[in-house]
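Forwarding the complex inputs:
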Amino acid sequence: MEEFAQQVVTGVSIGSIYAIIALAIVLIYRSTSVVNFAQGEMAMFTTFITWSFLLRMDFWPAFLLTIVVAFFIGAALEIVVMRPVERAPHLNSIVVTLGLLAIFNSVALWRYGPLQKPFPDPDNWCIGDSCLEIFQGDAFTAGAVTISRLNVGILFVALMIMVALFLMFNYTKLGLAMRATALNPVASQLVGINVSRMLALGWGLAAAVGAVAGVMTASSLNLSIDMMAGILIFGFAGAVLGGLDSPGGAIIGGLSVGVFQVLAGNYIDSQIDLMAAFAIIFIVLVIRPTGLFGRRLVRRV
Amino acid sequence: MIRVLKFQDVYASYGSVLALQGVSLKVAEGEVVALLGANGAGKSSTLRTISGLLRPSKGIVEFEGRRIDRTAPERIVQMGISQVPEGRQTFTELTVIENLRLGAYTRRDGRAVKQDLERVYTYFPVLAERRRQQAGLLSGGEQQMLAIGRALMAKPRLLLLDEPSLGLAPILVREIFEIIGKISKEEGLAILVVEQDASLALGIASHGYVLETGTVALHDTADNLKKSDSVRRAYLE
Amino acid sequence: MIGWVLLGLFLLFFPYLHTWPAASSFLDSVDNTTGLGIGGTFGVFQMTTLGVWLVILTGLNILTGYSGQISLGHGAFVAAGAYITAILLDQTATPLVVAILAAAIGTAAIGFAIGIPSLRLTGPYLAIATLAIIVSMPQFLKWDKVSEWTKGSTGIDLPSADVPTFLGLDRFMDDSQWLYYSVMVPAVIMTVLAWNLTRSRIGRAFIALRDSEIGAQQMGVNVSLYKTLAFAISALYAGVGGGLFAYTQDFVSPDSFGIFQSIEFLVVIVIGGLASTLGSVLAAIFFVYQDGVVLRLAELIGFPERLRWAFFGVGLILIMIVAPNGVAGLVQRLKTLRPATVLEMLRQARPSAMISRLRNHPLAERLGLGRRDEHDPGDEES
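Prediction (whole assembly, three chains):
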């Protein structure tokens, strides 16, 4: 039983990064119905931006500054690149995001090179002498179950983003307008919402959330240009599992994918952990075609 | 009378399909104007052009003396034109009160918004009862009331109504039209109403336009239109 | 008609072109300037792989372009076909043709089996479900339980394909030419078959259900049947393509079929043109030759080699903006051009009209350069 609990805890810690990326994917999908394949590479790229900020400043200011920069990169992409294909067939916008994937990957390769970069581990996440305690110190243990401080921290960050977004969407005028835009763009225009601005904002937010995921990934693995490739796929799986239009679903979906992956590796066959995890996802989708928490699709003739 | 809306020789199209071919019409302050015509005559396109959803290829649209034919939809709402679109288009997954708050999205005067909310509730008491419910759970008539209430929340000086009777039981339609008439009187609000049911629209309007294939075929006072043979034949009987 | 004959002759004699000195030096000079890679034995080999990808991409276009179902895991079907062929050739004395037919049937059956549970999934949900298949594929192939046949991560090494001495064929052609014909013949046949299929009742049913499932149902199309059929047909094509792949490369391994390859399949058919046979052909050309051309362009313009994918990405985005229906759509539009339309386009391309369109771009509006209430002179003349 304790072993099982440990597996779940490990799964949840792996899954928390998937959950953040899944959340970023959902933020774009629910407002524009575009699945952003560049989400992972955008996160990778902004993490390199963090890294170059780190050469000049402490961790937390660099982190916050990156989030702001990422926000503007995301919003700019929506305005410059996505808007011209807004009315084109659906696959076209997917191809455009794949183009962005190639661009970010290649620009990062050119600018920062193929080698891994050292990324400060959480013990050095400070401003001057003050550090954020949740990330530091020994692993937590409960009986035989342990979880590292970094993983606790990442999980905490994922939940914080979730809470912040929940508050924004449900208790601010801007959040209400963003939800309205996602639900009915024409009616939103008719009440005076600048729909284009909301879409740009959605991309900006997603890029900012992705930037957080990137920094978390770099600190648990290492900073390199291919660090997000695998995570993006699991993030996708998480987003789809939860339901592409449900932010809460994205978190739960992302965490579940992590847990599936670990459990499948341990209880089925470690050689086929991916296969088993994806088989589970496939089965869940066949039973619930729009994910666990997704809205039912309403299709018109 | 002060002119609120001037629509002068307006052309507009969807891609290669011409929707408006030189429509001209006027709405003065505080008056209710009916826009009649068959399906595809260009009634909804006229409203969409006023709201900025459809850009005219030619012609002039003026609101209170300012050109709005190149203005973004959200600016137009801010300037004082609200539309209740065809098929109501409420945000079905949001609550009634969220829908109404979205109606006041462009406004910054929080206290006045609260007062207007109360006023919408007095026009449509059922919305007050159901304020916490999802709009999608309301009946068709209630959703129509919500759509009108939402438009009123922007504190417009010109209200555009697109087929408020669509899909509603006759008794509800009469109730809604009564309230529209009342709103127009009490608020001094100019209203341009598109309606299939000409007798209803002409009942509250002072004058009306009849559109045919994208042009104005007829323009007269409501009383004369009610008597007019061609209108009777086409839309009243 | 003359065009078709010329194309046929070109395809027929292409492998011998480089043996003729004048033509050979011409092909080489084309390669040197464009980076295409059509000269010499390498050129023949490139054309051979083009045939392989043509079969695969034609199949994917039936599934995605015609029936409207997105598959991000098409490489898994290709892998299935390649492995079935390779295993049969490696461990039994099956003749090539039989092995490829077995691959076609086996893969179609797998397609059918995957198509049925996928019936309820649409759009991104289907895309992820199919992505799941391609992600799991390498693990499955490396798995202990099946490695007796698949040879695990080492993959299956086949003897390289030689010209059969049968009928004295070896006196007329070398190995590369033999491979060319053994791929090009089935590739051409299958492309023509697909072209016919898409214009038949089945093809029309696919299009109907792509445009509206409910509409198709009302027209009497059995939606479930046709959706699964599209999966099976496109898997059959992938199976044949995979078989030809194994035969021409004489090697298959779990890493021959990555996720990014499957994504690239989708990208090239969208660029080539969905729901169009010409689109599939263009997609295959793009798939094979894009690499060399982009590299060459990089050289010419002088940007760093590491930026070549950025260049590719920018190209992708521009094509999607300029030609939303792919290059085939663009060609179609050019074909229907009449003088009046050309004049109209030129008129639209006038500087003042361009500027007014630029000012309508959302970015311009954001920067305050867009037009607000003033009137635009460019539109008044119409």
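Chain A has one domain: 15-228.
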